[in-house]
Automatic annotation (TrEMBL):
<dbReference type="Pfam" id="PF17853">
    <property type="entry name" value="GGDEF_2"/>
</dbReference>
<protein>
    <submittedName>
        <fullName>PucR family transcriptional regulator</fullName>
    </submittedName>
</protein>
<dbReference type="Pfam" id="PF13556">
    <property type="entry name" value="HTH_30"/>
</dbReference>
<dbReference type="InterPro" id="IPR051448">
    <property type="entry name" value="CdaR-like_regulators"/>
</dbReference>
<feature type="domain" description="CdaR GGDEF-like">
    <location>
        <begin position="170"/>
        <end position="284"/>
    </location>
</feature>
<dbReference type="InterPro" id="IPR041522">
    <property type="entry name" value="CdaR_GGDEF"/>
</dbReference>
<dbReference type="InterPro" id="IPR025736">
    <property type="entry name" value="PucR_C-HTH_dom"/>
</dbReference>
<feature type="domain" description="PucR C-terminal helix-turn-helix">
    <location>
        <begin position="331"/>
        <end position="388"/>
    </location>
</feature>
<comment type="similarity">
    <text>Belongs to the CdaR family.</text>
</comment>
<dbReference type="InterPro" id="IPR042070">
    <property type="entry name" value="PucR_C-HTH_sf"/>
</dbReference>
C-alpha cells in the first residue's frame, strides 16, 4: 500500500514510514554512541550535557520522520524546532564540535536508515532524504550559532559601554575590573584614555574605525560613545616616539576636532584619573587653537587651570612652582625676570646685575627641574601660569 506523501517527487510506503518512526530511538542512541567513540571531549562532558545532546539527537530523528511524512510543510516546522536546540548547545559546545556531531549523526543515519526501506527504490529515496535533511540541519545549526554570536556581540557592546562609563565616572575598582576581564582585558596592562568627537553617527562605523586601527597596532582597546564624544581606552605604554606615532594613528579614528590623551596609568583600576584629565583637557583645548592632534592633557595645564580645574592647578604647583621655589630664590627670581623681560637675555641680566651666562646657566637648571624651557614660547606660558597659580594658592593659604 502506498501513501500519497512524497519525498522529492517519489512516494514512500506506510510500512517504510512506520519502520523509520519505530527506529527513531535506536537511531538517536546509535548516533550518541558514535559520538562517544569518536570524540574524547564528548566522554568528558557532564551527564546532564550528554543527556541534552541525546535529546537533541532524538528531536532530529523525530523531525526527520515528520519531514518524510509531509516534506512540504513539516520541513519548515522541523527546521524551526531544531534550530532552537543548538542555542542551548552553544553555551558549552563550540561550533566546530557541533559540526562534528552533526557529521557523525548523519553518517549513522546514512548507514542505518536505508536498511529500513521496503525495497531498493525506497532505499534510494531514503538515502537522498537523509542527505537533504542533513543539509537543512547543518544550516539550522549554523544559523543558531550566528544568532548566538550576534547576541554575544550585542551583550559585549553593552558590557563594554558599562566599563567605559564606569571609568569616566570612577566606579568601584572591583566591579570595573571584573567586567573588563569578561571582555578579555589584561588587568595588568597600562591604560590611556583618549577623548574626542566620534567619526560618524553610525555605531558600527565608529567601532570599525577604532578597532581596526587598534588591531593594526596590536593593542587592546575599549570604547564607548557618550553623546557627542567618543571615549577610547587604549592598552599599553605610550611614552616612546613609536608610541606617540601610534597615538596619532588612533587619533585618525576620531572625527573632526581636537583629540586629547590623558596620562598613561599603571592599570585600568586607575583609568578614571586618565579619563578625568583627558575630559578636562577636551573642555579647555579650545583656548589653544594650535594644539597638536592628539594633545596630551599634561600639555594643556595652563588652559585647564584657567578653566578652573583644581587638578591642573595642583599639577602646575607640584611640577613647576614648588621645584623652582625649593631650588632657591636666585633660580625663581631669574625665571620671573626673564619672563618679565620678554625673553630678552641681556635685559634680564642687567636687571639682575649678573652676566648673561649666569642667566643662561640658571635657566638651564630651571629647565632640568621643571621640564620647561623659558625660551620656548609655549613653555614660557606654562611657567607664567604656574607661578601665578602658585602665588594665588599661597595667598589663599592652600600652599
Amino acid at each position: 500500500m502506498w501513501e500519497s506523501d512524497r519525498v522529492n517527487g517519489r512516494r514512500l510506503s506506510a510500512e517504510t514510514l512506520g519502520a523509520v518512526e519505530r527506529a527513531s530511538g535506536k537511531l538517536a542512541s546509535a548516533a550518541v554512541a558514535a559520538m562517544d567513540r569518536e570524540f574524547p571531549w564528548f566522554g568528558r562532558m557532564p551527564a546532564d550535557q550528554r543527556a541534552s545532546v541525546s535529546l537533541v539527537a532524538q528531536s532530529g530523528v523525530a523531525g526527520f520522520t515528520a519531514w518524510l511524512k509531509d516534506p512540504r510543510e513539516a520541513l519548515r516546522l522541523t527546521t524551526d524546532t531544531f534550530r532552537g536546540a543548538p542555542r542551548e548547545l552553544s553555551r558549552w559546545v563550540s561550533l566546530r564540535q557541533t559540526v562534528e556531531m552533526v557529521r557523525v549523526s548523519l553518517q549513522v543515519f546514512e548507514e542505518m536508515v536505508p536498511d529500513l526501506a521496503a525495497d531498493d527504490d525506497e532505499r534510494a529515496v531514503l538515502s537522498e532524504a537523509v542527505l537533504r535533511y542533513g543539509r537543512e540541519v547543518a544550516f539550522a545549526s549554523a544559523m543558531s550559532y550566528a544568532s548566538a554570536a550576534e547576541a554575544r556581540g550585542a551583550w559585549d557592546a553593552r558590557l563594554e559601554a558599562l566599563v567605559v562609563d564606569g571609568i569616566v565616572r570612577g566606579d568601584a575598582e572591583e566591579s570595573l575590573l571584573s567586567r573588563a576581564a569578561a571582555l578579555g582585558w589584561d588587568p595588568a596592562a597600562e591604560a590611556t584614555v583618549l577623548v574626542g568627537n566620534p567619526p560618524s553617527d553610525d555605531p558600527p562605523t565608529v567601532v570599525y574605525e577604532v578597532r581596526s586601527r587598534a588591531a593594526r597596532a596590536g593593542r587592546a582597546v575599549l570604547l564607548g560613545v557618550q553623546g557627542s564624544r567618543l571615549v577610547v581606552v587604549l592598552a599599553g605604554p605610550t611614552d616612546s616616539a613609536a608610541d606617540m606615532e601610534m597615538l596619532k594613528r588612533m587619533a585618525n579614528a576620531f572625527g573632526d576636532g581636537a583629540v586629547v590623551a590623558g596620562p598613561t596609568v599603571a592599570s585600568l583600576a586607575e583609568g578614571h584619573r586618565s579619563a578625568a584629565d583627558a575630559l578636562s583637557g577636551l573642555r579647555a583645548v579650545v583656548a589653544w587653537p594650535e594644539a597638536p592632534r592628539p594633545v596630551r592633557s599634561a600639555d594643556l595645564l595652563p588652559e585647564r587651570a584657567l578653566a578652573g580645574d583644581p587638578e591642573a592647578e595642583w599639577q602646575l604647583i607640584d611640577r613647576v612652582a614648588r621645584p623652582l621655589e625649593e631650588a632657591g630664590g636666585a633660580l625663581l627670581e631669574t625665571v620671573e625676570a626673564y619672563l618679565g623681560a620678554g625673553g630678552v637675555l641681556e635685559t634680564c641680566a642687567r636687571q639682575l646685575f649678573v652676566h648673561p651666562n649666569t642667566v643662561r646657566y640658571r635657566l638651564r637648571k630651571a629647565a632640568e627641574l621643571t621640564g620647561r624651557n623659558a625660551a620656548d614660547p609655549r613653555d614660557g606660558l606654562v611657567l607664567r601660569v604656574a607661578l601665578a597659580v602658585g602665588r594665588l594658592s599661597r595667598a589663599r593659604g592652600l600652599w
